[in-house]
Amino acid sequence: MKIRKLPVAILGTGNIGTDLLIKVMRSETLECVLFAGRNLSSPGMTKASLLGVPVSAKGLRGIIDMAHEISLVFDATSAADHMEHAAVFEKLGIRAIDLTPAKVGRMCVPAVNLDECLDLPNVNMITCGGQASIPLACAIAAANPQVQYIETISTIASRSAGPATRINLDEYLLTTENGLSVFSHCERTKAILNLNPAQPCVHMQTTVMAKVEDPDISATRERVLEMVERIRHYVPGYRLIIEPIAESGRLVTMVGVDGLGDHLPKFAGNLDIINCAAIAYAEAYANRLE
């Protein structure tokens, strides 16, 4: 017998939070019981109200007041805010999915370590660049044990980089680099983010380059293709642009990410991929409770 939907809250009513709301409302296993921010007249709050979702302008206090009705919260605020929120969620016994680069909880990439994270009270979705690049880095490392260096470059539309992304830029890069290192077991990593102001807006593209002696191209290609298909189960717009090739003493592969267009424009694949990863985790957790 199927239990009722898992009651979740969304903290943060900007574009990411609003897009999350649309995805939660489409889910067969999740129900948004609170959409919390600071301004009732914001576009996100207005949309949530029109959709009949309970809203609160009390921010974290709104979550605290309804703690007995909430099983899981998506924190789409900022890295600095989540550092404070995490302790509150833990005390309240509310599971937290952190969409900021705060690095409080265990880093989670659903295609790589979903099952390992389902028992944890706080998981971190790393960054959009991390969600796009870490699976590729893992695939490269699995096929080539002697990876000496990994570098990832993500290019996104400037219009898809909101205030939170810009404020947390240093944390974004450091968290992405840390994630690359932890998941691939490669000590030397580097992350680069390019904000492209071109019109029409570019869609997200992420390149992963790895320094490997005598790379196994065939095995790398097989691992990368397998990983891309695994990600596409929860990020339909994730696609391989350049299959793994050996070039100038390094392995190179590239992916693109198109958004679903739920609330954000389709070029904002960078925001869509991290939201899709968060939803994948929440739905897996909800399904395990059945």
Describe the fold and architecture:
By secondary structure, the protein is α/β, with parallel strands linked by helices. The protein has 2 domains: 6-125 and 272-288, Rossmann fold (3-Layer(aba) Sandwich); 128-270, Dihydrodipicolinate Reductase, domain 2 (2-Layer Sandwich), CATH 3.30.360. Helix content is 42%, strand content 26%. The strands form 2 sheets. A 7-stranded parallel beta sheet has the order 3-2-1-4-5-7-6, with helices on both faces. Strand 1 (6-11), helix 1 (15-26) and strand 2 form a beta-alpha-beta unit. Helix 6 crosses helix 10 (269-288). The longest helix has 20 residues, at 269-288. The chain is globular, with a radius of gyration of 19 Å. It starts with 5 loop residues before the first strand and ends with a helix. The mean pLDDT is 95.
Write a short abstract of this structure.
The chain is an alpha/beta fold and 290 residues long.
Keyword list:
290 residues, alpha/beta, Rossmann fold, Dihydrodipicolinate Reductase, domain 2, seven-stranded parallel β-sheet, five-stranded mixed β-sheet, 10 helices, 12 strands, 26% strand
